[in-house]
Hints:
- By secondary structure, the chain is α/β, with parallel strands linked by helices.
- It has helices spanning 25-38, 50-60, 76-86, 100-111, 124-129, 131-145, 189-200, 219-231, 284-295, 312-320, 338-344, 354-366; strands spanning 2-3, 16-21, 41-47, 64-67, 91-96, 116-119, 180-185, 208-213, 235-236, 249-251, 257-263, 266-272, 299-303, 324-328, 350-352.
- Helix 7 packs parallel to helix 8 (219-231) and helix 9 (284-295) packs parallel to helix 10 (312-320).
Amino acid sequence: MTSFPSAGGSGAHRHKTVVIADDSVVVRGLFARWLGESGQFHVVAVAGDGETAVAHAGRFKPDVMVLDLDMPGVDGAAALPQILKESPKTGVLLATTLTERNTRIALECITKGAMDVLSKPDSRSGMTLSLDFRSEFLLKLGNIAQTQTKPGALPPELDLDYTPTGPISLRPLVSVMPRYLVIGASTGGPRAVAKVLFDIGEGLQDLTTLVVQHMPPLFTASFAEQVANYIGVPAREPFDGERLARGTIYVAPGGRHLGIDRKLGHIVASISDAPPVRFCRPAVDVLFADAARHLGAAALGLVLTGMGSDGTEGAAALRRVGAAVIAQDEQTSTIWGMPGSVVRARQASAVIPLDDIGLAIRNLVRGVHA
């Protein structure tokens, strides 16, 4: 068993504790060096297999675990439920090479409690030389380590009517029956998105639904396939310029923005490789802003669990054209970052628990208002 000296400090300034589980000595050493150099994390132990990872979870109760899927003996997927049983508050980041097989397995792991996934470069040299990979690795771990989003100032470039303290202020729901549902989600989103769509049920036949779920490439196609199989409604990644149809769910392709455009009188999908917005691509803000521009009050925005503030500026754009925006409540969110940011910016029309969102949207589609 390999372990490391305990970290100093306590409270808000305490370094976040990490266990690294990967069968590669090189990868374990590289990750440990990056985490040490960041000044934010303390690696308490490393593991080369799933069984050892489970033991470390029970002993150290780390804030975060970096978990590879491909390990000898007990692999990452088999170890995950045992890790969360031993240490329920540990946030798990899956870091693995995303083959088609691993993509399906990783998506299942996310629905079973993993917080996020990071795609490793194809080679160790690519991992070592890629500054983007290192930055994404540290960013994802930092986000996961913040297990509860604290109220605070929004990014300075986001110019909204915002009060950081005081009671929540909601905007009224509009009377227009929505015909387009635009959804934004990140950490914890796959399970939440599927739950909401399932609960909307037959109401989906009256909606054109577009989803931005923060995921790497390959994941989104598998996610759309899982959604389609789960709820029995067509769901897939759209192609650029595709005419959007009612009764279909469109999922933003990983690594590309999904927007909306109007051509020859028809609403079509707009797929682009434009730069990330607030470090996100696809970005909820892009979809929401286009929905505001081309759909107006016929759109209904929904912001579900996720880290960061993506979607807040887009929600403001929707509110300016008279559209309603629903935010998931804090208690049922894995991370109340994205929906919390929308609520604190006073751009939410309603704050609703996950179990009740589907029914609320179904009533809105039917023209029933509480």
